Amino acid sequence: MTVLERAEARASRRLPWGNPLVYLVAVVVIVAMLAPVAYIVLGGFRTNSQITVDPSGFPDPWNVGNYLGVLGGPVFWREVLNSVIVAVATTFGVVALGLMASYVIARYTFRARGAMYALFAAGLMFPLTVAITPLYFVVKTIGLMNTLPGVILPQIAFQLPVTVIILVPFLRAIPDEIQEAAEIDGCSRLGFFWRMVIPLSRPGVITVGILAFVFSWNAYLLPLFILNNQDAFTLPLGVQAFSSQYSQDTAKVLAFTSLSMIPALVFFSLFERRIVGGLTGAVKG
Amino acid sequence: MTVRTHTASGPTSSRLGPGGGDRVSPPLRRRRLGAPDWRQRLEIGLLAGPALVVFVSFVILPVGVAAFYGFFSWQGFGPPVDFVGFKNYLTILQDPDFHAALWHNGVIVVLSLVFQGPLAVLVALLLNRRMRGQSVIRVLLFVPYVISEVVVGTGWSLMLQSAGALNDALDKLGLGFLATDWLSDPSIAIWTLMVIITWKYLGFAVILFLAGLQGIPEELNEAAAIDGASYWQIQRRITLPLLAPTLRIWAFLSIIGSLQLFDLVYIIWGQYIASTAGTSTMATYMVLSGRTSGNYGYGNAVAVVLFIISLTVALLYQRFVLRRDTAGALTERSAR
After folding, report:
1. Domain span at residue B14?
2. What is the DSSP string of A166-225?
3. Which residue of A lies nearest to B199 if distances are taken between CA atoms?
4. How many distinct structural domains can be found in chain B?
């Protein structure tokens, strides 16, 4: 059966709406997941007196002043830009370096292979927290304090273990027959890497890419140590600085906090479709 | 260094032993071995080199330095000169605050597995069904995972204050007797933390499980359905066993993550309140006793202890649990 036929058969066999109980469960889970987020977002539309008088109420009347105030200032946008630069560079670096290293571990056979895999796997046991103080001195020594590369490079390094662990089994699963066929057609191993491995590993790459992006976007401890200059702050530092600066102005803190979520959410919902599409088109099918 | 092509791995070559397989060439699959060794070495260097350089300089080197500084009484400036041997380590092992933090980490490890595992499997099974609005539901479920710990911490701590939204909402629902001090009561705070952790990281488990579920061939489910198996029978007898490798990897990541938990506790409870509220972890203990007190040598020693504990747990886990997955992968390969 071809993929298309199978999809059609599946579509015709299943009811379009499915079991109502499933939707009930889905709704309960989603409400639980979203209630705290809704609290933050709605809180931003309230005034401080509304929040004090009725902590769990809805905005009445709705007040967009907090959001406009945050969006109108330069601080928020500068921090968004910094976070985007750091996250995109981290993601790109992790995917590029991780894919190349995983390819070597997965599809070359050489003595140090096991050791190399073990080295990266051991990295899972090195949390950033453990190394943060010496890492700070390393970054300082190479003169990257208060610069975005000073955050990007360590983040790439610390995200490599997870990336390698996820990608190696993925690259191993590419059937040997494909590689043999490519070799018979005169494709070198590097050519095979460029022409076959990169396209075939797209679902895995998207998965590790999203993990890297989210890791970077949420990173707090490393930027806290490396970036002391307000101009270089990423969003998590910004949120923290903002909430201590305006600790009396709960509504404004909530507005700033909810705005800081938006870019990551947009990015994630864009790529979530690609995960699903990518995974269904995986090699094993 | 002996280099062979990947196709040579598997049962045939493993019987030949390492290194020996190159010249004793079995027929057919060994064609590539005519290529000179230096070329493969060059490829390996080119491909793996950059990752190794970055990894060693920013992960291995600092961790090594941390281990070195752990033997000193060092305040963070100038070279460490005050060598104190294992004194830092003895102090750590005798400190009741560290014992408490270690205990909290243990509780968090166990409860994370117990809370998140079954819940995430159910949610992943649910999302793996074809239904209307599936992708919207997926995106919404992953919202907590995608937002940062700082946002989560700021939002939840405002919500959970004594005069905050949760207690107020309970009051309105006539459940006012349930209202309590969610954050600072030591008998409750750790459960509050578990709820927040589960809420925050459930999406990560679900992503992994969904990816695992997508790898299970549809034909198996179809065959079982034709044989008259119910939905739940199919999930229990076919899906769950096939998902087991993914579950084991997730459990591994979850255990390590729980042992190293820092951000959420630090942001919600702050460094001082965490220990009185019973939510301190080894990592918050490390920052409090090291960086905050200006005793970087001691902090680095705590880092080493934390590392050794994580490493031991990880090695035991890999030895006794993950080994089965490698075995499975190998048998699958040779079957091709």
Report:
1. 1-35
2. HHHHHHHTS-HHHHHHHHHTT--HHHHIIIIIHHHTHHHHHHHHHHHHHHHHH--HHHHH
3. A33
4. 2
The CA distance from A87 to A85, in Å, is 6
Query: What pLDDT is recorded for position B271?
Result: 60
Contact at CB, B60 and A264, closer than 8 angstroms? no
Q: Quick one: which of B161, B111, B112 has its CA closest to B273?
A: B161
- Residues B2, B119, single domain; the answer is no
Chain B residues close to A240, C-beta within 8 Å = 150, 154, 267
Query: Is the dihedral angle over the CA atoms A67, A69, A73, A75 positive or is it negative?
Result: negative
Cα(A104)–Cα(A127) distance, rounded to whole angstroms? 25
CB A163 within 8 A of CB A150: no
Cβ pair A10:B130 closer than 8 A? yes
Instruction: Report yes or no on B142 lying in a domain.
Output: yes
Q: What is the CATH number of the domain that holds B331?
A: 1.10.3720.10
Q: Decide if B77 is inside a domain.
A: no
Of A36, A129, A153, the CB nearest to B54: A153
pLDDT in tens, B144-162: 888 888 888 888 888 888 7
**B301 with B213, same domain?**
yes
What mean pLDDT comes out for the span B325-331? 45
3-state secondary structure of B260: coil
> What confidence tier does B110 reach under pLDDT thresholds 50, 70, 90?
very high
Residue B66: inside a domain: no
Residues B176, B291: one domain? yes
B-chain residue closest to A126, CA distance: B307
Domains and CATH numbers, chain A: 74-280 (1.10.3720.10)
pLDDT tens-digit profile of B266-306?
Answer: 888 876 666 677 788 888 888 887 767 777 778 888 888 88
Which residues does chain A have within 8 Å of residue B212's beta carbon, measured at their own beta carbons?
none
Same structural domain for residues B211 and B129? yes
The verdict on residue B6 lying in a domain is: yes
Q: For residues B201-228, give the mean pLDDT.
A: 80
Mean pLDDT on B308-335: 65
pLDDT in tens, B50-109: 888 889 888 888 878 877 877 877 776 667 777 777 778 888 888 888 888 899 899 999
Residue to mutate among B171, B172, B214, B246, with most A CBs inside 10 A, is B214
Residue in chain B lying closest to A150 (CA): B58
Give the mutation candidate from A129, A139, A162 for the B interface (greatest B CB count, under 10 A).
A129
Mutate to test the interface with B, among A80, A111, A130 (most CBs of B within 10 A): A130
Residues of A whose CB is below 8 A from B123: 29
CA-based end-to-end distance of chain A:
12
A162: left (phi over 0), alpha (psi -120 to 50) or beta: alpha
